[in-house]
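Internal tracking record. Fields below are filled automatically when a chain is submitted to the structure queue. Please do not edit lines marked as system-generated. If the sequence contains nonstandard residues, flag them in the REMARKS field before resubmitting.
Queue: standard
Priority: normal
Entity type: single polypeptide chain
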Amino acid sequence: MVGSDLDRSLGLYPTMMISMGAMIGSGIFVLPALGYKKAGPAVILAYVLAALVVLPAALSKAEMATAMPESGGTYLYIDRALGPLFGTIAGIGAWFSLVFKSSFALVGLGAYLLLFAPLSQGAVVYVALVLGALVVVLNVSGTELSGQIQAVIVTLVVISLAAYTLNAGFTLDTARFSPFSTEGNIGVVTAAAFVFVSYAGVTKVASVAEEVKDPGRNLPRAILGSMVVMTVLYVAVVGAIVGLSDPDVLKGGGPGGSASLTPMADGAGVLLGGFGVLFISIVAVIALTSMANAGILSSSRFPLAMSRDDLFPAPFGRIDARFKTPRNAVLLTGALLLTLIAFVPVIELAKLASAFQILVFSVINAALVAFREADVPSYTPEFEAPGYPYVQAFGFLAGLGLLTQMGTLPILGAAGIIVGSALIYAFYGRARTDRTGAIGTIIHARRGETDEGLAPTDRE
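SYSTEM-GENERATED OUTPUT FOLLOWS
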């Protein structure tokens, strides 16, 4: 027998650790060298700029999560605000993007794994597949168990990173910060666009809102608390990497003279020699696996929520009676994850998905504006985002500005996701729903009409 409700088993700490776990990954262990190549030591400012652009979306999602503490996150808010077409695009796009990011994490850990394990490059894919399968099994087995393991892992990783940066403070070479901005302001903005995905996990915890205890209190604290902690941690770690590592290694230490894929290990080698490389490499493998776990946990809730709204086949909305998890949605997400790892050049395609993430972070601000202006009776958030509507306007425009710095291929990738999702809605979801969303209420009100197609913000 299967039900439709999930257990509220996650307290504040595991919820915050899920959010942080979705961020502690490529943003720390892979992207700093790529950002350094684009901005020089000013890559530190790029991380701060990216955080400022993400913050409005984090505030907006924190508010909407307390009004709609259900599974679905990005999909749910955009669907209820802008209607099922935009909801389908957001849901499928965010699902693909997050699974790409998780598969990128598992494949990307190979560069660190090869630093201490006697494996061939080809064997790394098999290791990633095994770890991916374990993550899927863990998520089928229970959200509480997954959250508890996530909390332990993230705590240990944060302690390790703090120790790394504190020790680096006594060893780093301050001369490596001069000149600070080698590529000017444009270089900082371009680097910010590429490291933006480092913060993308901050709001993914909203997709598991239905499994959070006391969501009106815990969700805003988890989202905003993890945002603050990770911004400080990113700046500290990237600063340590810049101060410890040889600039030539950061810029050209990767395959074929590309940016280094193991910048944390580059700095650790200077700090603690071979032991430092071994230690950081093991931490990286654990952290990237944790990131994949958080990604599967949150991304699997998108097909669950869409199924409940008849925009996805009904089996994906069922809850396993024994484990109280969306088993079918997790298995579908896991199948996509393993397929990407096995057959797709994930590292390249992950760049394409990142542009869509920036776009979604911009649109989520518009969704909050739609709810506020429509004055939906059932929209009663326990937390209200400050600075409305100026903060949301800044987040929307700043996100679009960063998007222009992503390059042609990532933008085309985002366009492809939009077109594909729209086709799925046209051929499957359109005939099954007549909702208009909060934006429809606004339009009808201006025409002096009554809108009967607004989906309620609470699930009956």
